[in-house]
Amino acid sequence: MRNETPERDQIAALRAQLATLEGPGGGRVRTTSETGVEFSPFSSDFQGLHDLYADSVADAVAVNAFGLGLALRTAAGRPIVWGLHDQMANEAGLPHGPGLQEMGVDPTGLLLVRVRDMKALLAVGEDALRSPAVGAVLLSAWGEAKALSLTASRRLALAAEAGGGALFLARAGAVPAPSAAETRWAIRAVASRPLEAGAPGHPSFLATLLRRRSGGGETKIWPMEWDRDHRSFRPPAPLSGGLVPLAAHRTAPAPGGRAGDRAGDSGPRRVA
After folding, report:
1. What residue segments make up the domains of the chain, in order of their start?
2. Could you give the CA distance from residue 264 to residue 12 in angstroms, rounded to a whole number?
């Protein structure tokens, strides 16, 4: 869905569409907090606000795909609201229907809202979190913005907590900053393992957990690939040819400088 009306009308339209999704018995199911237990993106149920940063501008597509995967896994068949900042769409490309289907996304269960203004993007997130019919929310933002402040993140975190939902804030062209998020990640695209007959492999990522609010300050990294059939992430299969894959739960070095300085940055690409 693309809406060309001003942001105020977009929010009103979003509320109307969310109202059509809501019905008796459509409330969210709260999960148990995992404070004090081993955390893993493969086994954890995500709740609250989670910050996802592209490791470089070349990883903008990857951070959106990773966020969409987490949203799809968390939604468990319920609708997903995806708020997309226009600048992110201009830099990283528009969502691609066949690509979304290859990830296992049902287009009828995805409500896409494009906005020009960061404040409107945050409003989309808050309104979506208030709807018990929404399974998960993904917001995609490009660059630094005053609107994406610590106060704004607290509002989103409180909205997620009140509604028992999950919101994934995917950002590219921005430096990780303090926020009220439960977790903070740096996401990088990595080469996938080819399938039989040289067919393209599964989407593959290197996810670095930079911070976990509920405990465990150690930075960790996980190599993973997306399993379309099970709509979940999984550890990559061992590589042949004597190459050793990066070990899961390996302690990562301290995060480096500003995102976007890596060589080989590419232009706009399609999302997913």
Report:
1. 41-240
2. 41
Amino acid 16: pLDDT: 63
- Buried/exposed 238-271: b ≥16 CB within 10 Å, e otherwise: eeeeeeeeeeeeeebeeeeeebbeeeeeeeeeeb
Q: How far apart are CA 54 and CA 171, in angstroms?
A: 6
Virtual CA dihedral for 6, 145, 60, 110, nearest 10 degrees?
-40
What is residue 14's predicted lDDT score, i.e. its pLDDT?
A: 64
pLDDT at 82: 96
Backbone angles phi, psi at 246, to 5 degrees: -65, 130
Write the CA distances from 1 to 109, 195, 219, 225, integer angstroms.
Answer: 12, 33, 38, 28
- Tokens encoding 185: 């990640």
d(CA 127, CA 7): 13
Amino acid at 12: A
Instruction: Please give the torsion angle defined by the CA atoms of residues 61, 66, 72 and 74, in that order, rounded to the nearest 10 degrees.
Output: -150
Q: Which CATH number fits domain 41-240: 3.40.50.300, 3.60.15.10, 2.10.70.10, 3.30.479.10?
A: 3.40.50.300
Mean pLDDT by 10 residues, the chain (272 residues): 54 64 48 44 78 96 95 90 95 88 87 93 94 93 94 95 92 95 94 74 90 75 88 77 47 48 41 42
3-state secondary structure 182-228: CEEEEEEECCCCCCHHHCCCCCEEEEEEEEECCCCCCCEEEEEEEEC
DSSP string, 114-152: EESSHHHHHHHHHHHHH-TT--EEEEEEES--TTS-HHH
